[in-house]
Amino acid sequence: MAIVTVAVGILIDPQGRVLVTRRAPKTHQGGLWEFPGGKVEPGETVSGALARELKEELGVAVLTSEPFMTLQHDYVDKQVCLSVYTVTSWRGEPSGIEGQPLAWQRPADLIDWPFPAANQPILERLLGD
After folding, report:
1. Which of 125, 31, 13, 29 is nearest to 70 (CA)?
2. Three-state SS sequence of 48-110
3. What is the mean pLDDT of the chain?
4. Residue 43: left (phi > 0), alpha (psi -120 to 50), or beta?
5. pLDDT tens, 26-69?
6. What are the structural domain ranges in the chain?
7. Phi-psi domain of 44 (left: phi exceeds 0; alpha: psi -120 through 50; beta: other)
8. 66 and 86 in contact (C-beta within 8 Å)?
9. Chain centre to alpha carbon of residue 53
10. Is residue 129 predicted with pLDDT exceeding 70?
11. How far apart are CA 26 and CA 18, in angstroms?
């Protein structure tokens, strides 16, 4: 089974809301909401991948981030290792550079939103469960 390491950013605004984006319909787990980020490329650090992915996907430059959690999840076709960081300051206004919808929401308001199974532990930890 292929193992994919993914850098994930939880952008938190001053009101305590987090940024979520919707996956393109034709991608793995397409149409579901997620925390932004992407694959760590060979030779790249997780923090470097996080900065690159958030620049490519959202048009922002990460200024302050810190580790939040690491988790693994097995899908039928692959295993993902998510290295999750909170991002509390950035330069630029986040926008869907790749055409993806995005939304700022309080974590408690995301309970009924459709997320990939691998994101559930992130939501639970944000909610303090």
Report:
1. 125
2. HHHHHHHHHHHCCEEEEEEEEEEEEEECCCEEEEEEEEEEEEEECCCCCCCCCCEEEECHHHH
3. 92
4. left
5. 766 668 999 999 999 999 999 999 999 999 999 999 999 999 99
6. 2-126
7. beta
8. yes
9. 10
10. no
11. 25
Q: What is the mean pLDDT of residues 1-8?
A: 87
* Residue 101 neighbours by CB distance under 10 Å: 10
What is this structure's pTM? 0.90
Nearest in space to 50 (alpha carbons), one of 1, 112, 108, 8: 8
Secondary-structure class of domain 2-126 per CATH: alpha beta
Q: Nearest CA to 118 among 84, 82, 83?
A: 82
Proportion of the chain in helix, strand, coil states, percent, rounded to 5: 20, 40, 40
Nearby residues of 59 by Cβ (< 8 Å), 6 or more positions away: 92, 93, 94, 95, 97
Query: Could you tell me whether strands 18-22 and 33-34 are parallel, antiparallel, or unpaired per DSSP bridges?
Result: antiparallel
